[in-house]
Amino acid sequence: MNFDVIIIGAGVVGGMAARELSRYDLSVCLLEKENDVATGASRANSGIVHGGYDPEPGTLKAKLNTVGVEMLYEAAQQLHVPCLHNGSMVCAFGEKEDPAVKELYERGQINNIPGLKILTGDEARAIEPNLSTAITSALHVTNAGIICPYDLTIAAVGNAMDNGVALKRNFAVSAIEKNGSGYTVTSAKGETVTGKYVLNCAGGYSDKIAAMVGDDHFTIIPRAGEYILLDKTEGSRVSHTIFQVPSEEGKGILVSPTVDGNLLTGPTALKVETPESRDTTPAGLEQVQRLAAKSVPSVNFRQVITSFTGVRSSEKGGDFIIEESKKAPGFVHVAAIDSPGLTCCVAIARYAVDLLNKAGLILTEKANWNGNRANPHAFREMTDDEKNAYIQENPDFGKIVCRCETVSEGEIRNAIRQNPGAWDIDGVKRRTRGGMGRCQGGFCGPYVMALIAEELGIPMETVTKSGGDSYMLTGRIGE
Amino acid sequence: MEKHAIIVVGGGPAGMAAAIAAYDRGVTDVVILDREPHLGGILMQCIHNGFGLHKLGQELTGPEYAAVYEKKVMERGIKVYYEATVTHVSPDKVVTAQSRQGILKFQADAVILAMGCRERSRGALNICGSRPAGVYSAGTAQKLMNCEGYMVGKKVVILGSGDIGLIMARRMSLEGAKVEAVCELMPYSGGLTRNIVQCLEDFGIPLYLSTTVAQIHGEKRLEGVTIAQVDERRQPIEETKRYIPCDTLLLSVGLIPENELTRACGIPMDPITNGALVDDICQTQIPGIFACGNVLQVHDLVDYVSEEAERAGIGAAELILNGAASGEAIPTKPGNGVRYVIPQNVRKTGNDVSLFLRVTQPFGKVKFTVTAGDQVLAVAKRLKAAPGEMEKITVKANMLENVTEPIVVALEEL
User: Fold this and answer.
1) ipTM
2) Structural domain span for residue A445
3) Residue of A50, A80, A240, A333 with catalytic role
4) Please, are residues A327 and A183 in contact by the beta-carbon 8 Å criterion?
């Protein structure tokens, strides 16, 4: 099939672009090299809706952040993605750092960010009593929030699919050729898809994708960030997202509640060889703990649930690269999407669609487009009485599989069935939280594997953790 | 709302023994709620033998031991709700469960908590490196092998020498996997001596003490681990790092009582045991709510779980039949060489009281002394004592009569 638009990369930006394009009378194909969406930078980042005070005025980041916050809140509501408008604080530790808070405030005024306020240390502690006594001033960012990045990506892709977008997984792009009316994209396995226009949303690989059409004017610098996630017992240490002003040790470590009620600390910033890096390091984890405790000394790191590493795709220019390639007409790069990329994802998607339009893509709105997605979390949001009534009709929702996060068999089956369905254990985890709690899948893992095998009609032995060679079992006993 | 005299949360060895004991003491309106489709709890995946030597005088497998108790539950007609996961227990003893039949709510006169424990996960250990498939907690691997019939890997390293890890070293060897090493962070094993002999030594599997897994390698499936000896702060020593190729890492690094319901109910906890504070009949500090088995303290042998649960069951039944026993509560405290003492409170009821404890580190020949002020209440000698093995010391009822000061259990090396 010849698509109107091919999107390479099903991260939050590719997913949101797919959703924006699904508004129009177009055939769209979303390509993803992994077994699931949201497996790159959208899998593991801070999950922050940034206020917009930070980007250098005049940059694309500043422009899209200012308009993007409200766009994101609106999309999250339509897609039923939990999002908390909790506000943030950027803290200074001592006289030397106080001017930095003032500087960020002034930058925020230039960027036209509403609701910024400078607090004294005591004012900040009056709002957040667990903040360190060493904090002398803070920028209060009232429009900031938190959102789950992979939940948002899954929802955006799902909504795009509901509106007709095709998703091809395990399609690692290995070559792109110009053909008469567009591009032929070939996978490592030799499959091809053709399209008139291409959106390069390949995250850590966007420079490699660009190079396939002879465009080598930017180079992605993968930077790893290590995080430590704490139990829900620590989730109420702070209600705001707590940042530190940039210091010699980098941009600082945040301490933030998550939409699920846990506490997140991190990230570090370490240049790494490959965007695939998932390694946590002793030095990184030590730094996260030390600097998180600098802001909120009472964080109890004995309540660690897990630690993980995410990789951001940065570029030396420091700004987003969203432009039609000068080497390849109709080929639009959406690259170097590091912070505040999540905040800007809807704005970025619209900006990119606008570029495609300028490059000749005709946008005719569909009459029947539906931007609302069925709420996959409907069951867990019910009262006991509502649950009881629902279980009478759907008994699978009565059987709890993941006891730590109280996830039922019905919710897991739904996650495997609903667009884009979970095909592996990590996919179930990201969609339902099943296996994400204190025991980390120790009890529910075998049960989840059996449900995946049953729903997909595959043997247990072929169930994977995250696609590819991530097999869980090596065979039957006695074979 | 359904009303019952006693609701037991969990149908493993503790829950079954508690329910049977309560029934036999005269309270027949006992209900067990279990999240699985069968009774027996974790015993059902423990197909090795060694269960029941103390309590039943025979050597059984886990499912056989469970079957003994299941039969007694059935004979008494004790009502069991299967696949009913308790989601909340309130201080006024309303128990909420979720099952295929709907959201079930019960009002009980007494609640016995018997939820067992869970394994510490990789995340809680902060092991560095990547996050591939092939890293299992030992119990999860045990379930996949013994209940589902699948092999989880071929070349195995085990971190932690707890009993499940040792048992799984043997189990995987028997099924043709190569167990390269068992690494133990501490300078001694936390497992039972008989398991070290029968599961490692008999199979030629090396046990490396004061050694940890410093890094996990592999992108999709585990490719290997870096192990290293640790210094006195338990940090890996750089020069001792060594790479072992393997496709499977089993973690047997400790058990944590599953007390989410207990905490949510507001029951005061012991920070050392991670279980509730209880008195000599396993009653928590909320009257009418009891806790027993591994949710109270992680036991070494299931036989002792059953014994403890029987005390809880009888205690709950007597509370219902006779009302709360009078008698002041005397606190207990761990002294030299002792990590914790259960129960944390002893009431003077005219009965003998058993104190359960674990020691802080391995010792040779020791003498335990139970004192209250200047008064010596009991003395017990052991040829050796290890943190992996639970100790029980009984104080005679008459010795407790005049006690007013806290009861301290301490040891001295002989």
Assistant:
1) 0.94
2) 379-462
3) A50
4) no
